[in-house]
Write a structure and sequence with these properties.
D-Maltodextrin-Binding Protein, domain 2; 2 domains; three-stranded antiparallel β-sheet; 12% strand
Length: 459
């Protein structure tokens, strides 16, 4: 769900209008002369791509699980590279990507590049011997635009393979700004304030403060894992979180136990849940897509879910700072603490031909990040964000995208990737999901964590 640079490219533009010009600027037959968009902001032209040389007749295949309509902005973002180098980018989307990419790699038939959504899957692919090390230029871009934490996520056994690309923020609480305004409620800035707000809503509003759903077919239970990961970060800090994810400390050790109990103060509290659906046990049978919808009906007020949840509200819903629905950052213990749980995508290559390396380097730059953001602005209820420090925030038009980018790019943010996505499959996508569901329906914290610990592979 999630490095690299050699040379920094010319910054595209300081506005969405300037970036729009980029999509046509690179089609110049003579390679373009550069210049501005009339406001003095620089625009990219084919001079920015001269370092890659003439790649006419070359094709680079990309394989991904990002399908319609989210795939079109990717296709559009590569157009300047195609127009200016002569290369063709063949983007192939597949809903069965996560299963099929392993099949293809093991069969010796991988694509040139794949967009990998989890570090754990990256490690599995590296183990097939088909993934190639990231080029020096890509590594340099990640050093400049991303930082050590993100680069580490694309690194396996000390070798850097995959540059980060898109990102999502999971540390969010959805709410109704209009309801908050009407009741004089303030957005909390600490965990204590979040608990006080929950108590206030429970006492005064006539409905349960929280609503939730964790049903997701074979993946039922995964939203609880996000809750727990957020609270491990808050109870133990980033170092303990890392130790827990890598099993340097036991799954059922002190901090994880405190974290799940802290989650239980919300999700297993009959005074807090499950607004619009029923009692605590109804969380297990409510589809995660539906979990936050009662906010629109005034049946609950708070729903913890990632930035991508915006797509689940009906078309036409006013998702904005003063609208029907918006989100706030799930606070830390203090207002200064900024732990951020999230996910992302990683650009992983299986070939080292010059044209493949050229696309990788372009893809890991600030130039591509801004092109991709501009190409994504028209997606319904949310576009696309990245933790690339070269992103121009003025491009983002969707309020949730802006909020997410502000959180990711905050200099005080301590980002950690979704823990279950980095754990062995026997735990992260099996025991953790299943036992989290049993926990919601009555199993104790101790039994839940003991069973997940017992599922951890011996080697």
């Amino acid at each position: 769900m999630n490095g690299m640079r050699k040379r920094r490219y010319t910054t595209i533009a300081a506005s969405a209008a300037a970036l729009a010009l980029v999509l046509t600027a690179c089609s110049s037959d003579d390679g373009g002369d550069g210049g501005t968009d009339g406001t003095g902001a620089p625009t990219a032209d084919c001079a920015d791509f001269e370092q890659y040389g003439d790649l006419s007749g070359k094709t680079i295949t990309i394989y991904a699980g990002i399908v319609t309509p989210e795939d079109q902005p990717y296709v559009d973002s590569f157009k300047p590279f195609e127009d200016c180098t002569g290369a063709k980018v063949d983007y192939q989307a597949d809903k069965q990507f996560e299963q099929q990419i392993l099949v293809r790699a093991q069969a010796g038939n991988p694509p040139d590049i794949a967009i990998i959504p989890q570090p754990g899957l990256l490690a599995q692919l590296v183990a097939t011997g088909t993934v190639v090390e990231a080029p020096e230029g890509v590594a340099a871009n990640v050093d400049e635009f991303w930082g050590e934490d993100w680069k580490a996520l694309g690194t396996v056994d000390g070798t850097f393979y995959a540059a980060p690309s898109g990102a999502s923020v999971k540390s969010l609480v959805w709410y109704s700004p209009q309801e908050f305004e009407a009741n004089g409620w303030e957005v909390p800035t600490t965990l204590d304030e979040l608990k006080t707000l929950s108590d206030t809503i429970a006492a005064d509003s006539g409905h349960k403060p929280w609503c939730a759903g964790i049903a997701s077919d074979a993946a039922t239970g995964w939203p609880v894992t996000d809750w727990m990961e957020d609270f491990v970060l808050r109870e133990g800090g980033a170092d303990v979180y890392d130790q827990w994810v890598s099993h340097e400390i036991a799954f059922n050790s002190e901090v994880p136990t405190k974290a799940l109990d802290a989650v239980g103060e919300y999700l297993k509290n009959p005074d807090y849940v499950n607004g619009g659906f029923g009692d605590v046990s109804s969380i297990a049978t409510t589809a995660f897509q539906d979990g936050g919808l009662p906010i629109l009906e005034g049946q609950c007020s708070l729903h913890r879910m990632a930035s991508f949840y915006a797509a689940n509200f009906p078309q036409g819903t006013d998702i904005s700072e003063n609208g029907q629905i918006f989100a706030f950052y799930l606070p830390g213990k203090t207002a200064e603490d900024k732990p951020v749980l999230g996910a992302g995508e990683f650009v992983t290559a299986f070939a080292d031909r010059p044209e493949v390396q050229a696309l990788q380097e372009f893809w890991s730059s600030d130039t591509w990040a801004n092109l991709k953001a501009q190409a994504s602005v028209d997606l319904t209820n949310g576009g696309w964000i990245t933790a690339n420090k070269g992103l121009d925030p003025s491009i983002l038009t969707n309020p949730i995208d802006k909020l997410s980018a502000d959180i990711l790019l905050d200099e005080n943010a301590v980002f950690r990737f979704d823990g279950s996505d980095m754990m062995p499959a026997a735990v992260g996508s099996n025991a953790f999901w299943k036992e989290a569901t049993s926990w919601i329906t009555g199993q104790s914290t101790k039994d839940t964590l003991d069973k997940i610990e017992a599922a951890w592979p011996a080697s």
